[in-house]
Design a protein that fits this description.
This protein is of the alpha+beta class and 96 residues long. It is built from 2 helices and 4 strands, in the order H-E-E-H-E-E. The protein has one domain.
Length: 96
């Protein structure tokens, strides 16, 4: 009985050690109501500013770009804000 349990444990350990290690896949454009990220590989293919503006407009907000990693595999991050910084207007009111 102990030999079978030890063999089973060794087989499971071997599968876990020798199996491929993979990271989770992230889509080229991902976001929610607070902001999101855009893959840097989309810079030459599409208008990233329009993508971010359309995304934030769905929530009734404006876009503020936060940072960029200008290398392959990098991302451009943005935030969706209620009112742009420095605006003299009152914040938007939403009714739920």
């Amino acid at each position: 009985m102990r030999l079978t349990g030890a063999a089973f444990l060794a087989a499971i350990t071997g599968v876990l050690v020798c199996g491929p290690a993979r990271a989770d896949w992230v889509p080229p454009f991902k976001g929610n109501d607070t902001g999101g990220i855009i893959s840097y590989s989309l810079v030459g293919q599409s208008d990233i500013r329009a993508l971010a503006i359309d995304h934030c407009a769905r929530y009734g907000k404006v876009v503020k770009f936060l940072g960029a990693q200008p290398h392959p595999g990098g991302y451009i991050s943005f935030a969706c804000r209620w009112v742009p910084y420095g605006a003299n207007e009152r914040p938007l009111r939403t009714r739920y």
